[in-house]
Every structure is written in structure tokens, then in C-alpha cells.
Design a protein that fits this description.
13 helices, about 280 residues, mainly alpha, Farnesyl Diphosphate Synthase
């Protein structure tokens, strides 16, 4: 391998975990010797899932996502990385003995979204986030718990589905304005809406409410055992559930505005959960 090239993504906080973000607080309460590694994984996830926003042409987005899929495979299977982020990832996976399949799942999820968006049904949309965000949550679990039991990995994946869905609902307006349709076809048909021509506020409220209910049912935090090895994932899930509740109180006005938790509220929720474990 060529001489190491450190990047700003190698240290917490980085561009994917800025002060005030959900991931900032999720990682802040992780053991100090894991924070840089967790932040690096978050940076890889962010790099992949920002591709649809960066590339308005699906063909260009697919080429870029495909390049990153190849780069990730080169990085963790002994190949020659071409990007500093890939080099950092190679060192991390070698040092932590992480399984590579969640990394590939993240890349495959964004490639699948570019190819087949919108998704057929709500279950397919949740599965998409479980494959993408859930894979990141699984890798977080491997960092905090080498060789975690299958039950812990499964729970991390399901909570990833909840986290991804909450973020998608929060940013739905921005996604639609950018031409990224993350509404499932079955719900669009049920409410007679189309991504390309805009959505009336009444329909948007009903749609988002249905998606939020499905997300909460899928990744119910109340059904998750409190386990310190899941702490960064549990904090993100707690923030996601709270965000869904706040958006619901406001009537899900996500088409025209972005509802968010304040950094102070996030800090308090994260600290409270940390103190219970």
C-alpha cells in the first residue's frame, strides 16, 4: 500500500459528524478509543448517500456509485485504494477485523435506489434503509462489540431502518425539489399524488404519518434491550423517534419546511440515555 494519507475524515468530529448533528452526539458518548473509527464509517456512509443529491443525471450517479463500490471493495480486500478515504478504511478494517459485507450493503443500497426509485411499497423503502443505514449501524456494533451475537446485529439493522426512515421523512421536501423520489408507489397511488407535480399539504400529512407509523413499528425502540454495545445506535434511534414525534405534532410540514431537534435537546436526550446504560 502507498504511504498513508490522513484526511479530515480520520478524526472525530468530521464532515459527517459535525457539532450539533445526531451522529455527533451518538459518537460523543461512545468509548474515546472508538470515536475516530465510528466517525470514519459515518463519513463513508455520507459519501455514498449524498451521490443522488450531487448528480441529477441517474447515469452519472450510477457511474459514481459504481466507482465507490469498487473502491470500497479494493480497500477491504487487499487491493490498491485510489482515494484517501479508502486508504483510511483499509487500515480500519485491518485493525478492527471488521466484516466487509455491511460496507458492500451500503454501496449496493444506494445503487439500487438510483436504479429503481421510487420504491414499490413501504416495506421496500424500509428495507432500503435497513440495508443502507442499518449496515452502518451494524458496523458501529462491530466496533463496540467484536464478534457481536446475531441478535445484536439484527437489532442494529432494524434500528437503522427506523433512523433512515426518520431522516428521509425530515428531508422529504428537499429530496422532492431535487428530483429524488423516496415515496413508495403504493402510498402515492392510494393518495393520488406524483412526485413530479408536487404534493398538497393534506396529502403530505397523511403520507408522512403512514410512513412514520411504519418506521416506528419496524424499529420500535421500546422493544430493544438496553445494551451499551448498541449505544451509538440507540442514541440515533432515540433521536429519530423523538424527531418523528415532533414532526407529527407539527402536522408533518416537511414539504415546505424542515423540522429538527435543537442541539441542546439532542444533547439532553443522548445524555439521559447514556446515564441509563
Amino acid at each position: 500500500m502507498a504511504p498513508s494519507r490522513l484526511t479530515t475524515e480520520d478524526r472525530y468530529p468530521n464532515t459527517a459528524t459535525p457539532l450539533g448533528s445526531d451522529l455527533y452526539y451518538a459518537i460523543r458518548y461512545a468509548p474515546p478509543d472508538t470515536r475516530d473509527d465510528l466517525a470514519l464509517l459515518a463519513a463513508v456512509y455520507a459519501r455514498l448517500f449524498q451521490i443522488p443529491a450531487e448528480c441529477s443525471e441517474p447515469a452519472v450517479a450510477l457511474r459514481k456509485a459504481g466507482w465507490w463500490r469498487d473502491e470500497l471493495e479494493r480497500s477491504v480486500t487487499g487491493g490498491r485504494s485510489e482515494h484517501p478515504l479508502g486508504e483510511s478504511l483499509a487500515r480500519l478494517f485491518e485493525r478492527r477485523l471488521l466484516p466487509p459485507h455491511p460496507l458492500f450493503d451500503m454501496a449496493d443500497a444506494i445503487i439500487a435506489e438510483i436504479r429503481r426509485s421510487p420504491f414499490t411499497d413501504t416495506a421496500g423503502l424500509i428495507a432500503h434503509w435497513e440495508q443502507g443505514q442499518g449496515a452502518l449501524c451494524e458496523l458501529f456494533t462491530h466496533i463496540l462489540s467484536p464478534a457481536p451475537p446475531d441478535t445484536l446485529v439484527c437489532k442494529a439493522r432494524r434500528l437503522g431502518g427506523l433512523i433512515g426512515m426518520a431522516t428521509a421523512i425530515q428531508d422529504m421536501g428537499a429530496h422532492l425539489r431535487a428530483g429524488r423520489c423516496l415515496l413508495p408507489k403504493d402510498l402515492m397511488a392510494a393518495y393520488g399524488v406524483q412526485c413530479a407535480i408536487g404534493i398538497e399539504p393534506e396529502s403530505a400529512t397523511a403520507l408522512m404519518s403512514r410512513l412514520a407509523d411504519a418506521a416506528r413499528s419496524h424499529g420500535a425502540l421500546s422493544a430493544t434491550p438496553t445494551n451499551r454495545r448498541l449505544l451509538p445506535v440507540l442514541i440515533q434511534a432515540q433521536l429519530a423517534e423523538t424527531l418523528l414525534g415532533e414532526m407529527e405534532k407539527a402536522g408533518f410540514p416537511v414539504i415546505g419546511q424542515r423540522v429538527a431537534l435543537t442541539p441542546l435537546y439532542k444533547l439532553w436526550l443522548s445524555w439521559r440515555l447514556y446515564r441509563t446504560l
